[in-house]
Amino acid sequence: MKFDLHSHTFFSDGMLSPADLLARAIERKVDVLAITDHDTLLGLAPAHTAIAEQQLPLQLVNGVEISTSWYEFEIHIVGLAINPADTQLQQRLASQQERRLERAREMARRLTKHNVPDCLEAVMTLANGGAVTRTHFARHLMQIGKASSMAGVFKHYLARGKAGYVPNNWVSLMEAVQWIHDAGGVAVLAHPLRYNLNGKWLTKLMREFAAAGGDAAEVASCQLTPVQKRDVWALCQQFGLVASQGSDFHQPTDWSDLGRGLYLTDDIRTVWQQFPALFPQPESPVESSDKPQLCS
């Protein structure tokens, strides 16, 4: 079975509807998919409906990606196998959405002062009722010709110290882990190498995430080399975490897609092995010849 336990729909900053995301996952031969939109559960119900109505050959894991504040860093925690009907989780995520709106208003105000007016209305239109993210601002700034790429937008407008940068105001890492556990789920540190932390700070993050009750970290993604995977897994072992994997899919690109590069060697203990009651289980071990190729 191929597991992809990190993906996004247009209910946060993904480009596809839940139904289109599922179709893409099936095309990419993903067997188990987690939808993990930013601080929202809105994509889960329509995904379950599409699976039931169309009898899709795919199993869905209910998920969410919670933004947290850790020192001066924004760290993302994925919640897997959560109960989307949990009213406490719904209320807690609603508070995160309020924080997102507050940040969006302040970003728009700062951009207006730097001759980029009328951002908020355009960004809210792009979000279309979903979670408002910095990606929506980046897409708008690209549309009006302020940059030709996402990287260019962040470099010149949204990165720390730039006109549209607003420090995050998210919940703490410990709170996010507690929210996930209270909703019956498993807490996973998302893409640990993407925060540009040096070795000392990455070790500190993994240690404090484990101390907060975290369960796993993403060891496999398309962007990681085999050496990087081993490095992350070594930290997992050091702090008693198991491994998860996910593409962090937003839209098809040359460097990332659903299921791409998601392979873990047999000596790595996975989140679905550690919590078998919460995840679909492979009927038999996957032969090495069936494993997807690593990204080149």
Describe this structure as you would to a colleague.
With 296 residues, the chain is an alpha/beta fold. The protein folds into 2 domains: 3-92 and 169-290, TIM Barrel (Alpha-Beta Barrel); 93-158, Orthogonal Bundle (DNA polymerase, domain 1). It is built from 10 helices and 8 strands. Strands 1, 2, 3, 4, 5, 6, 7 and 8 form an 8-stranded mixed beta sheet that branches. Strand 3 and strand 4 form a beta hairpin. The two termini are 22 Å apart. 44% of the residues are buried.
Terminal residue distance = 22 Å
- List low-pLDDT spans: 286-296
Number of domains: 2
Q: How many beta-strand runs?
A: 8
Percentage of residues in helical conformation: 25-40%
CATH fold naming of the largest domain: TIM Barrel
Order of helices and strands: EHEHEEHHHHEHEHEHEH
